[in-house]
Specification:
By secondary structure, the chain is mainly α. It has 2 domains: about 60 residues; about 220 residues, MetI-like fold (Orthogonal Bundle). About 75% of the residues lie in helices and about 0% in strands. It is built from 15 helices and no strands. The longest helix has about 40 residues.
Length: about 280
Amino acid sequence: MSTTQSHLDAKLKRTVFFILWLVACLTISAVYIGPVLWMLLTAFKPLPEIRAWPPQLLPQNWTIENFERAWVAMYWPRLFLNSAFLATTITVLNLTVSSLAAFAFACLRFPYKNIVFMLVLATMIVPEQVDLIPRFLMMNQWGLVNTYVPLILLAAVHAFNIFLYRQFFQSLPQEYFDAARVDGASLFRIYRSIVMPLAWPATATLFIFSFLAHWNAFLYPLIYLHNQDLWTVQLGLAFFSYTQAGIPIGPMMAASAFVALPPVIVYIIFQRYFMRGVVMSGVKG
């Protein structure tokens, strides 16, 4: 009888714990998803429903007028093209440089390797605003202001990407590298033909992180891009929100919705590799 009671108590505790865990997850999800859902639904509401009190979540009369008004108010195709070019170029360059550096830290032997790696990680604690002015003065002296070159150069490498790649490379079996060396493979051949194909989950994970970061970048494009033909979607969205003060909130929500769409598409494409890359990168420290 006591054994049966203990099993019932344990089952009850597991049930209560599961319910509490589910409530916590739903609450956290609502905090993050709620504003996004409200933005999307507001974009499909006509003006009277947006101004209605008490506010209603679902539109009563669905409309795409807000999207039409937002689209014709700015030269969005050019802005999307600029942001796609910058985000893709920076991401590809960043992952290439970071993976090469991580391969050296994980698979090569050289003096003071661990100290150098700690110094690289230490750069993560330095806010980017600290060297904002010196970087701008340097780029201005070189005549690179109002071009994409500073944005690409200043984001060519990131310590976090090196760290995550290194953790993933260290989890790979050492036998792969030994067999490749026996067959006479060079270091670059090992990197290109063995390490990087196996590191696809980590690459997909970092591609999501990097693409999202540079698609949503605002500070550096604001500082270095003065020509409107070079603007990104974030600068265009800010200009739209400040100069179109007479436009109701509906077109603002619509513009924010289609600006956020490309990162969502990128995440959907790579999401199945996302958790795998994060988990496997911490298998071996």
